[in-house]
Amino acid sequence: MVDATQMDTKRAIDEMNRGAEEVEVGTRVVHEMGDSFNSIPKSIEQVTTEMLNVSKSTQIIAMNTVQLSEVLTEMEISTLENAEYSQSITVDTDRLITESNEIKTFAQKMNYLVSELKQGMSKYTIKH
């Protein structure tokens, strides 16, 4: 009977030791979960900060896009104005070429008439 009591006591002690180990493991798990739960607000704060940064970047991109659009519109207007000016220069140049050709033709006719006049005058002599 003493042997049986000692065996029961040993089993009880072994069970208590196993129970203590399980409690220790459970306590560690609870502490780890507590640490995990404590890190959640910090992670949420980091995500919130990143979302704010993304929002700010998006606003900057939107403003830059508006500015780029305005610059492109100004460039388009300048290009159209330059095209109109170039077309006007082309028209004026064509007109000057036509007028220059007319003046050249007129000068050739005048040279011919002066030549004719000189030939006609050479037939006559003027006396004093």
Task: Write up this protein.
It is a single chain. The protein is rod-shaped and about 180 Å long. The chain is 95% helix and 0% strand. With 128 residues, it is an all-alpha fold. It has one helix at 2-122.
Q: How do the SSEs run, as a string of H and E?
A: H
> Measured on Cα atoms, how large is the radius of gyration?
54 Å
Mean pLDDT: 89
- How much helix is in the residues? over 70%
Strand percentage, roughly?
A: under 5%
Largest sheet: none
Q: Runs with pLDDT <50, length 5+?
A: none
Structural class: mainly alpha
**Distance from first to last alpha carbon:** 183 Å
Number-wise, the strands total 0
Write a compact overview of the structure shown.
This protein is mainly α and 128 residues long. The protein has one helix at residues 2-122.
What is the strand and helix layout of this fold?
Blueprint: H1 2-122
Quick tags:
128 residues, rod-shaped, single chain, mainly alpha
